[in-house]
Design brief:
This protein is about 0% helix and about 50% strand. The protein has about 120 residues and is mainly β. Strands 2, 4, 5, 6, 9, 10 and 11 form a 7-stranded mixed β-sheet that branches. A 4-stranded antiparallel β-sheet has the order 1-3-8-7, with no helix packed on it. A hairpin with a 5-residue loop joins strand 9 and strand 10.
């Protein structure tokens, strides 16, 4: 059974930090690109950061470059999102995503974790 379980969300003041974790099970984690998305009410889900499985190539949304860091531990089957210098506009539900662009494409989602940046 495939599972992606996010943790680490919460309430933080502007300028603060949080570290999100996503623990995976039920699939070949190291072969999947892992992504963090976020979504606020009334808006489309936004890709925040991605890290490939084999090469570890990383990409970030322009809005988080220099503040967020994505990493993965294939032995622990976990992907992380370190979020620093948080802003009000980072408030969202953050989702973990695993994707393998093979045939067929396999795409899994976590349940999401709320991050609220507020003073």
């Amino acid at each position: 059974q495939v599972q992606l379980v996010e943790s680490g969300g919460g309430l933080v003041q502007p300028g603060g930090s949080l570290r999100l974790s996503c623990a995976a099970s039920g699939f070949a984690f190291s072969m999947y690109t892992m992504r963090w998305y976020r979504q606020t009410p009334g808006k489309e889900r936004e890709l925040v950061a991605a890290i490939t499985g084999v090469t570890g190539r990383i990409n970030y949304a322009d809005s988080v470059k220099g503040r967020f860091t994505i990493s993965r531990d294939n032995a622990k089957k976990t992907v992380y999102l370190q979020m620093n210098s948080l802003k009000f506009e980072d408030t969202a539900v953050y989702y973990c995503n695993a994707v393998n662009l093979g045939v067929p494409i396999q795409n899994y989602w976590g349940q999401g974790t709320q991050v609220t940046v507020s003073s």
